[in-house]
Amino acid sequence: MAGEIAIIGAGMTRFGKFPDLSLETLGSEAASQAMHDAGIEPKAVQAAYCANALAPQLLGEFTMGQKIFWELGINKIPVVNLENACTSGSTAFYLACLAIRAGAIDLALVLGVEKMYTAVKKILDAGATDLETKLGFVVPGTFAMRARSYISRYGLAPEDLALVSVKNRRHGFLNPKAQFREIITVEDVLGSPMIADPLTRLSCCPQGDGAAAVVLCRAELARQFTSRPVYVASSLLLSGSYDNPPRLDSWPTDMRAAGKAYEEAGLGPDDLDVIELHDAFTIAELIHYEGLGLCAPGGGGELLKGGHTSLGGRIPVNPSGGLLSRGHPVGATGVAQLVEIVTQLRGEAGPRQVPNARTGMAHCMGGDLQGDTRSVTINILTV
Amino acid sequence: MPELIEQGLWGDSPEGKVLLGSCCSVCGTRAFPSRRVCPNCCSEKQVQAPMSRQGKVFSYTRIFIDTPVVDEFPYLVAYVLLDDGITVPARLKHFEGSPDVGTPVELEVGVTGRTAAGEEIEGYYFRPEKGGDGSWQEK
Fold first, then answer.
1. What average pLDDT is seen over chain A?
2. Which CATH code is given to the segment(s) A5-118+208-232?
3. Fewer Cβ neighbours under 10 Å: the N or C end of chain B?
4. Which domain covers residue B62, as residue numbers?
5. How confident is the model at residue A129 (pLDDT cuts 50, 70, 90)?
6. Do A195 and B64 touch (CB under 8 A)?
7. B-contacting residues of A 194-223, CB under 8 Å?
8. Is A328 helix (H, G, I), strand (E, B) or coil?
9. What ipTM score was computed for the predicted complex, to two decimals?
10. What is the pLDDT of residues A246-273, one digit of tens each?
11. What does the alpha-carbon distance between residue A11 and residue A222 come to, in Å, rounded to a whole number?
């Protein structure tokens, strides 16, 4: 699919705690920014996708896309509301790519929006009727078990694991749209309250409010709208394999998805200049390094400690601050990662710019089932 | 009578309570909870199968979140690798200190939590295996 589709506009709100801003306000702000950035009128949008994961359970709201897009003057077109856990936004982008590739439409708007600071306080679980949930499993717990398996197999000091948070906070410090912009130390991470041993509070991404949007179109139309199109080299969505016993110290589903994405793009891990990946918890970033082929299994700790995935390193990971620092309004995250890669490839990332970035990857993962993920998305973008 | 965490998860055997899973009549793949379709070969010929009462801790964590359905704080959850060769999700109870990956455990059925109305929930959990060095003691 390399070169068939271009992203021509990107926008996002700041991520954080915004009790006074509604889902509609956040969503329309990001969507407006993306359309202004693309230089298009609302009537140019031929299909619109609204990704949201939690509004039905936290806010009692649903089918928000039509309401948000209606306020912006977008109507009489296909509107899809979409939930796919943490990959909701990137799955919406995948579907928009499919629609354009199929020739059904020329131009689409993809919005991800979430509002998690509400009166309903809830630690995320895999789903209310899952046996795991009824037994007391919560999302931080399943990642803590991954950490335990990884440490048991490869050995990894708590200080090294904490470095993921320290790095991503250092990156987030440079991102004006990040939820957390304070630099923290290994001692801060290890000294914060224990959530699920060995993961402390600062080893886990925060809840947050925010929205992000992109406009995409058939590649041959892109130059009508912008002098700086970013092309989609691969867009991929897969479910897990749910092997039993599960692999907790590696992620076969990552490896399968990355293999397919690299093949579709005609690229390999060495061709990537910048990556946004799904660091919902510190351990996840290390396992994803290995799943995406940045290093051999068990080599994630050394890759991190060597500074190779920091800004200025060989392959900077999560320059936005990642989920740990930029924040994780669930439905918005998959699109926010795309916005960061677009910003990097356009050379507009300011102090967190990866020099001469020409190829970037956005990797997102959502949901738990049987010790595996429910969905993984990989999007590879180029200029 | 306590409320069951889920119907049909366990039954009786001469050795005590056993988890009831499925076994594929075509390829022999076992699963817990029971599957209608084999996760390996997709056959629908599944029969009920008692699972081993013994296993080892595959991975675990101690959770410090006040979870409404759980009757302890903090509490242990784990994937337990049964001697049948498959893992099951479970609570761990009656551990004096921390378990380890590989610690031998055995099944017990009992109270694992409470409903919102305060009713006891009967579920299953694993505890340190009795015997061996005799280190396990009823609390």
1. 95
2. 3.40.47.10
3. N
4. 3-128
5. confident
6. yes
7. 194-199
8. coil
9. 0.92
10. 999 999 999 999 999 999 999 999 999 9
11. 17
Just list the catalytic residues of A: 86
Q: For residue A373, what are its two tokens? A: 């993920």
Instruction: Tell me if residue B77 falls in helix, strand or coil.
Output: strand
Of the partner residues A135, A193, A245, the one whose CB lies closest to the CB of residue B87: A245
- Cβ(A346)–Cβ(A339) under 8 Å? no
Residue B138 lies in a domain: no
Closest Cβ opposite residue B61 in set A123, A131, A197: A197
Considering the four listed CATH numbers 3.40.50.620, 3.40.50.150, 3.40.47.10, 3.50.50.60, the one that applies to the domain covering A131-200+235-382 is: 3.40.47.10
Q: Coil, strand or helix: which one is B20? A: strand
Averaged pLDDT for residues A197-214: 96
Give how many domains chain B has, as a whole number.
1
Interface test mutation site (partner B, options A124, A134, A135, A281, max chain B beta carbons within 10 A): A135
CA distances from A142 to A135, A227, A310 (A): 12, 45, 26
Q: What is the pTM of this model?
A: 0.95
With pLDDT > 90 as the criterion, what percentage of chain B qualifies? 78
- Among chain A residues, the shortest Cα distance to B40 is held by A243
Question: Per-residue pLDDT averaged across A59-80, rounded?
Answer: 95
**Pairs across A and B, CB distance < 8 A:** 95
Residues of A in contact with B89 (CB under 8 A): 131-132, 135, 137
Domain definitions of chain A by residue range: 5-118+208-232, 131-200+235-382
* Strand duo A79-82 + A274-276: pairing: unpaired
Who among A152, A194, A196 is closest to B101 (CB)?
A: A152
Amino acid A36 reads: H
pLDDT number for residue B116: 80
Residue B86 lies in a domain: yes
CB contact B57 to A (< 8 Å)? no
Give SS3 for A63. coil
Question: Shortest CA distance to B106 belongs to which of B59, B60, B54?
Answer: B54
The pair of structure tokens assigned to A363 is 């990797």
Compute the radius of gyration of chain A from its Cα atoms.
19
B118 found inside a domain: yes
What CA–CA distance (Å, rounded) separates A320 from A169? 9
Q: List pLDDT tens digits, range B76-129.
A: 999 999 999 999 999 999 998 889 999 999 999 999 988 888 889 999 999 999
Instruction: Please give the Cα distance from A316 to A334 (Å, whole number).
Output: 18
Query: A30-50 b/e with 16+ CB inside 10 Å = b?
Result: bbebbbebbebebebbbbbbb
Q: Which of B27, B79, B114 to mutate to test the interface with A (most CBs of A within 10 A)?
A: B79
Q: Does A154 touch chain B (CB under 8 A)?
A: no
